[in-house]
């Protein structure tokens, strides 16, 4: 096994391969245990395998840790990782802790941890990367950094002071929303709330949209009402409506009153429909244009990075007004069809009138059958006056039809090795 020093924050996200080069997953954390007379010992890695499941890989099954990759023996226990008493995850639980320097140099926050293999083949913590308190009053200034050995610091346990989550949030900054949600749910409950409080509103909203509703409510209930309303403003209206529907009527109304009026109006509209209907599952913000709009204008709109891919696949053409509920729905123009016509072509001339809209009262099962029958990723949703009130995409229907625990369900509890 290689004997180079490895920093854990940089190791997180690295690919894990078996001896023949097949990718097994990616590193999410490093697990350590404390020792009385020496620095903490590394006992294994938490890796994410397909299905977004986090599992434990014993350090004894790791044959090489190099820049950008980890090589293992190929034997992995596929049971979902659950920390045992005495085990500490470096990224999830240790980074961000406050320590005091034993040489009298004051206090600092742990920003990274270096692990290294000793001459006996055992991995342990050899160095800490620390950031001291800033010395400038400028809000943009940061404190000086320094390195220290484990025996040169002492951990602080200050009553009433929460463990800093800033470094952990920085470590998670590149995670996809679904991966961030899985990672948050794997954290101890109090640590999960600390990280949620530190995350920007938009990032937390994205992560909540990927969580089961009970976990969404659990996090939102621990945030202040003003912060909760800000996060709800950043969520897709259909996801925000689903979340608010799990709350008491009093709290629901209170949070709606704190939300941005336009966002709250969309959510209130969705709450009027049954949860298992097209109206309850749709988004009220599809791309809507007039028949006189051009292909160039439509393509410019669907290029917006914040737009969900399923909603970017089609543009809905209606009579004015062009915000839901619109004027009468005229038809749909799919992204692929727009690519076949010159930029100046009018959308009204290339309408796909064969796509049948679904009624706002249609069941989720009925919508799923239509999407599957015509190989579509989204459908227009109309009211009794044939006005467009929203669009429903395939992911909206899947979220409803799949079991409630599909995000965390262990499809296979068998093991290919033992921990």
TrEMBL record:
Keyword DNA damage: no
Pfam families: CBS, MgtE_N, SH3_actinomycetes
Chain ranges of the CBS domain: 282-350, 351-413
Taxonomy, superkingdom: Bacteria
SMART domains given in the database record: CBS (SM00116), MgtE_N (SM00924)
InterPro entries, A to Z: CBS_dom (IPR000644), CBS_dom_sf (IPR046342), Mg_transptr_MgtE_intracell_dom (IPR006668), MgtE_N_sf (IPR038076), MgtE_transporter (IPR006669), SH3_actinomycetes (IPR058838)
Keywords per UniProt: CBS domain
Entry-linked PANTHER family: MAGNESIUM TRANSPORTER MGTE
Protein name: Magnesium transporter
Source taxonomy: Bacteria, Bacillati, Actinomycetota, Actinomycetes, Micrococcales
């Amino acid at each position: 096994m290689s004997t180079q020093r490895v920093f854990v924050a940089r190791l997180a996200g690295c690919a894990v391969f078996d001896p023949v080069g097949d990718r097994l997953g990616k590193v999410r954390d490093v697990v350590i245990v404390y020792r009385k007379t020496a620095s903490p010992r590394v006992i294994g890695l938490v890796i994410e395998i397909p299905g977004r499941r986090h599992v434990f890989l014993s350090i004894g099954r790791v044959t090489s840790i190099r820049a950008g990759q980890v090589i293992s023996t190929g034997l992995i226990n596929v049971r979902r990782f659950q920390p045992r008493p005495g085990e500490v995850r470096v990224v999830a639980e240790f980074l961000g802790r406050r320590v005091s320097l034993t040489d009298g140099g004051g206090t600092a926050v742990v920003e990274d941890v270096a692990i290294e293999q000793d001459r006996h083949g055992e991995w342990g913590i050899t160095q800490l990367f620390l950031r001291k308190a800033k010395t400038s009053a400028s809000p943009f200034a940061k404190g000086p950094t320094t390195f220290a050995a484990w025996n040169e610091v002492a951990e602080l346990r200050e009553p009433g002071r929460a463990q800093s989550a800033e470094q952990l949030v920085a470590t998670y900054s590149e995670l996809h929303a679904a991966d961030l949600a899985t990672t948050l749910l794997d954290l101890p409950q109090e640590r999960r709330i600390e990280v949620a409080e530190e995350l920007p509103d938009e990032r937390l909203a994205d992560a909540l949209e990927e969580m089961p509703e009970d976990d969404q409510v659990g996090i939102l209930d621990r945030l202040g009402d003003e912060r909760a309303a800000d996060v709800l403003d950043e969520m897709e209206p259909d996801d925000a409506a689903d979340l608010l529907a799990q709350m008491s009527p009093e709290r629901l109304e209170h949070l709606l009153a704190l939300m941005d009026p336009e966002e709250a109006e969309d959510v209130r509209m969705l709450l009027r429909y049954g949860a298992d209907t097209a109206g309850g599952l749709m988004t009220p913000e599809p791309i809507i244009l007039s028949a006189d709009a051009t292909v160039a204008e439509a393509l410019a709109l669907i290029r917006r990075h914040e737009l969900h891919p399923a909603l970017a696949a089609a543009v809905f053409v209606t009579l004015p007004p062009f915000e839901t509920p619109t004027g009468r729905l005229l038809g749909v123009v799919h992204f692929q069809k727009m690519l076949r016509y010159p930029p100046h072509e009018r959308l009204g001339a290339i309408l796909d009138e064969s796509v049948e809209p679904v009624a706002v009262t249609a069941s989720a099962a009925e919508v799923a059958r239509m999407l599957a029958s015509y190989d579509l990723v989204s459908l227009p949703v109309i009211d009794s006056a044939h006005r467009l009130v929203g669009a429903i995409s395939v992911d909206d229907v899947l979220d409803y039809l799949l079991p409630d625990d599909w995000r965390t369900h262990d499809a296979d509890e068998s093991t290919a090795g033992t921990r």
